[in-house]
């Protein structure tokens, strides 16, 4: 009897996994159909559902789904945010920087400074000066009164004697 009880949860887990695969196949077919119709709203919705289903067990496949959906909806904050979460590991730092930059370009002023500073740090670690400047400029554009962004950008320009850029920033 105890042996039977131990098998039941494993069996249920297998059934649940089977249903998840079936759901994934349905979502994939619908997503393919949406792509054929160029239905951006459906592509976005179905890709988010399918990606969420795949993230726990097949994160690389979820990344592929999200990246493909970005081709149809390049400014989708939900897609970019999902990708950013999947690129949290140290070995995905270049991907993280790319997604952070795309996300920063569409960020509201309340979240832009945090994203800009995170991106600037990644670019600094990679010795990418122009990437640092781009990140700080995007953050400044979104939140010109944010003290830390303003100070870091001014310091960046001053330390590199980019006086014209500094003057433009200050006017």
Keywords:
0% strand; 171 residues; disordered N terminus; mainly alpha; single chain; 9 helices
Describe this structure in words.
- The protein is an all-alpha fold and 171 residues long.
- Helices cover 80% and strands 0% of the residues.
- α1 packs antiparallel against α2, α3 packs antiparallel against α4 and α4 packs antiparallel against α5.
Gist?
Helices cover 80% and strands 0% of the residues. With 171 residues, it is mainly α.
Write the layout of secondary structure elements.
Layout (H helix, E strand, L loop, with lengths): L1 H36 L2 H15 L4 H14 L4 H10 L6 H13 L6 H14 L3 H14 L4 H13 L3 H8 L1
Helix pairs in contact: 1-2, 2-3, 3-4, 4-5, 5-6, 6-7, 7-8, 8-9
Number of H- or I-type helical stretches: 9
> Largest sheet, described in full?
none
How far do the termini sit from each other?
80 Å
Which percent band covers the strand fraction? under 5%
What share of residues is helical? over 70%
* Succession of helices and strands: HHHHHHHHH
> Using only CA atoms, what is the Rg?
22 Å
SSE class:
mainly alpha
Number of strands: 0
Overall shape: it is: elongated
Average pLDDT figure: 89
Sequence stretches where pLDDT stays below 50 over 5 or more residues: 1-15
């Amino acid at each position: 009897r105890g042996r039977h009880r131990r098998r039941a949860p494993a069996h249920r887990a297998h059934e649940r996994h089977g249903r998840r695969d079936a759901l994934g196949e349905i979502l994939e077919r619908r997503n393919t159909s949406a792509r054929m119709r160029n239905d951006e709203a459906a592509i976005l919705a179905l890709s988010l559902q399918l990606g969420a289903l795949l993230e726990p067990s097949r994160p690389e496949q979820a990344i592929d789904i999200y990246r493909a959906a970005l081709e149809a909806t390049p400014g989708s904050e939900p897609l970019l945010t999902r990708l950013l979460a999947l690129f949290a590991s140290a070995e995905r730092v270049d991907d993280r920087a790319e997604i952070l930059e795309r996300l920063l370009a569409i960020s509201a002023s309340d979240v832009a400074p945090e994203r800009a500073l995170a991106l600037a740090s990644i670019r600094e670690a990679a010795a990418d000066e122009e990437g640092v400047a781009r990140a700080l400029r995007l953050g400044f554009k979104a939140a010109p009164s944010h003290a830390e962004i303003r100070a870091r950008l001014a310091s960046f320009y001053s330390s590199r004697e980019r006086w014209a850029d500094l003057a433009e920033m200050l006017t």
